[in-house]
């Protein structure tokens, strides 16, 4: 009786084991057929990630941070102030440049007034030249006349000498008038040259003022586009240097795309504009659509920091990957849950 019971149990165990083995075999056969069908109909890869433009926040000015207006993972709009740097030194430099510019403009105004005065004086000297020339001509005529009278003994030697002295004085006055006129013209030229120097200083101080205003604007860092801030690593009162990276912004205006790294044996029939199905690991069962917009001109290893050199003698053939860029279809709301770095599976239809 006991042996019969054991025989019945063994028979049921054998039967159940056979059923389970058959079910597993059928599952394996079905999985194999499905995999074979998918391999024949689709090109698929799970070596793919969501990508967005991620740019660093870089300070162009140094100093102590006086205000931080963002938190980690916060959404920001274009023009929002991210942080403010102590701007007292920049403000003082700007005021110094403004004062220097004002001083140069005042000097230019004074020189312009001097030029006008010197030009007026040169006109007076020019008039004096005419008067001296007329006087010299009269004295020359008087001297010539008394010379002839002296020759015929109609004038005394004293009168001739007096006219000769008057002629010499008139000639000297004429020369003085000429020299004064030349001197006044030289002064005008010198003052105009000084004007050019001051004008150059004005341009220099204008450029310096613009630079100081630019430096002052660098003390306020704003969001360059609609974005989302990443990790915050700065605090109020912290000292930063020009060129220092203060955080990272995820650009929400440029859109999202997928970089799918297909094997080189899979890209033969791919073309720009081909539709793709995208499955995100973060959203099982939810489908996303995309479109191929470009294929990389080289394999990923060719763009690496140290590309492999196959001529060294240790060559091992490895299937290379070609990055394929796929733009997500739909509105930003449709793809709102997809974030940069998420793993996805990309499927392309071979028949299309």
UniProtKB/TrEMBL annotation:
Membrane topology: Single-pass membrane protein
GO cellular component: membrane
Residue ranges of domain CusB-like beta-barrel in the record: 257-298
Keyword Transmembrane helix: yes
Presence of the UniProt keyword Disulfide bond in the record: no
A GO BP annotation: transmembrane transport
Identification of the protein by name: Membrane fusion protein, multidrug efflux system
